[in-house]
Design brief:
By secondary structure, the chain is mostly helical. The chain has helices at residues 2-21, 24-41, 50-61, 63-86, 92-109, 119-150, 161-170, 174-193, 195-200, 210-245, 265-283, 291-312, 315-327, 340-347. Helix 4 packs antiparallel against helix 5 (92-109) and helix 5 runs parallel beside helix 8. It contains 14 helices and no strands.
């Protein structure tokens, strides 16, 4: 028992150190760019060889390409290599909550996006930027808290169950297939979802208006709904684990609180958050930034299907969950379509 706890503690500390160090290549490179781009743009050949001058100039003119390059090498490649070494692709889960914070600060600091304008225009830019940054931090803190609470405050105790299922399906090919099945999609999702950050920090001549307020309300509502839904789910799982330890029957489904009105209120809250950011971009005349939220919603619909199939395969909850499906809205919280008892009697 003592040896097992000691090994778990060592692994936890090791994974925490790895997780804290792993983004440093991108951070240090970006800080070097911010420090040196001005001299490079002014053709200071005495300070920079032609290669570095060309590189900093390219980084200045291509903020979207630069962030994709950094993501590809620092997240896709480095996270993948670490996952292969550890035989566990756990790290992308906690970093899903961190990367958007890094992205919003990346866009807010990129010099090309700090466009000129009069003082009033900079006021619009400043306040909209600070609002979005603050909201992103609140969203991230909520999600990272939920992740570590669920994982019992352990770093890398286990990987996402969906990755484990995929690894079993791919077998010996998983070592290379994992790069395409896990990491490349994360780049599509996270860079796509964060496109509103790019828009907010590239448009500074649009006055704050009622649509900014609407976006704030949608984002905050999403965060609040997701928080309460995840907390109710956590309490439900904790109670069932205690019942399991006492060899008592488990409660088959969570059918109270927000979960009474929606089968996946946590997913609904998360979608509200991302679509609220889209409203910011739409208000600035760049509705095309919705593409990331749309792709994520479509992916989440597929994930919902997988989760519900998994629930129906568990004997102790299959019947109860089947009734739950027939009476309860999938995402959007709504009133029951019929009483479970009436449906059960009708099916009998």
């Amino acid at each position: 028992m003592g040896s097992g706890n000691a090994n778990s503690s060592v692994r936890n500390v090791k994974n925490a150190i790895i997780a804290c160090l792993v983004p440093l290549p991108s951070i240090l490179f970006y800080l070097s760019f911010l420090k040196n781009y001005d001299s490079a743009m002014n053709n200071n050949a005495t300070k920079f060889p032609s290669f570095w001058s060309t590189l900093w100039t390219w980084c200045y003119h291509h903020p979207l390409l630069l962030v994709n390059v950094l993501f590809f090498f620092n997240v896709n490649v480095l996270f993948w290599v670490i996952g292969l070494i550890q035989s566990s692709h756990w790290m992308i889960d906690p970093y899903w909550t961190v990367i958007p914070v890094m992205l919003v600060h990346y866009y807010s600091a990129h010099p090309l996006l700090l466009l000129g304008g009069d003082d009033d225009e900079h006021d619009y830019y400043f306040w909209r930027s600070r609002i979005v940054i603050l909201l992103t931090w609140v969203w991230s803190i909520r999600l990272i808290h939920n992740y570590f609470r669920r994982e019992k405050w352990q770093w890398g105790a286990k990987e996402d169950w969906r990755f484990t299922v995929l690894s079993q399906q791919y077998g010996k090919q998983w070592w290379w297939a994992s790069f395409f099945a896990i990491y490349l999609p994360q780049q599509v999702f996270l860079i796509g979802l964060s496109l509103p950050f790019y828009v907010v920090h590239s448009i500074n001549n649009h006055p704050l208006n009622v649509w900014d307020l609407v976006a704030i309300v949608i984002c905050v509502s999403g965060i609040i709904i997701a928080y309460f839904a995840d907390t109710q789910l956590y309490n439900f799982v904790t109670r069932n684990n205690k019942l399991k330890g006492l060899d008592e029957p488990l409660v088959p489904i969570l059918n109270s609180g927000l979960w009474y009105y929606s089968r996946h209120p946590n997913y609904f809250g998360e979608q509200l958050w991302w679509w609220g950011l889209v409203v910011f971009a739409w208000n600035l005349g760049h509705g095309w930034a919705f593409i990331g939220a749309l792709v994520n919603t479509m992916c989440l619909a597929y994930v919902t299907k997988l989760v519900e199939e998994r629930m129906l395969k568990q004997d102790y909850r299959a019947e109860a969950f089947s009734l739950y499906q027939k009476t309860t809205s999938m995402w959007v919280p709504w009133f029951k379509s019929s009483s479970p008892l009436r449906l059960k009697n009708k099916n009998a």
